[in-house]
What does this fold into?
Amino acid sequence: MEACPESDCALSAYHLGAHMTFDHEEFSGRKEEPKLDSLVAVMTGMVFSPGLPAHSVERLNAADELFGRLDVRLRAGEEPPLSWRVLGADDNEGRAFVTDRYDVLSEVLRTSGGATECRQALRKARREWGQLNETMKEGSAMPEPWWRSARRL
It folds into this structure.
């Protein structure tokens, strides 16, 4: 079982709720944000291992919050994850493809409803995030919202 990426947290990765120390004390504050590669790995785990159907609402909300953190940092010009191969301005086809994946993913992560609706949204998020992440690993221009701030090869 994979450990939570939050330092000092004794729980497993993708847990719901507050973090907990080995002394069973809850905490939620983060002194520093994890590396973007860590956020990408956690996002991948969340959507590819969505947990029990009864937890779909919480899992979808957590994935939305995590993607929001990734989005804010990339829009602010932070270096992309090391696992992504960011190409330059001539990759219009790649940029269009990943921008479409970004748009659909952003929308589906904001789905509201009960466990059934959220479970379906998690399935769609898995497909969209999987395509976005894999395309970026193979090499692509960044999605349009992140494009202006991205360092390119």
The mean pLDDT is 88.
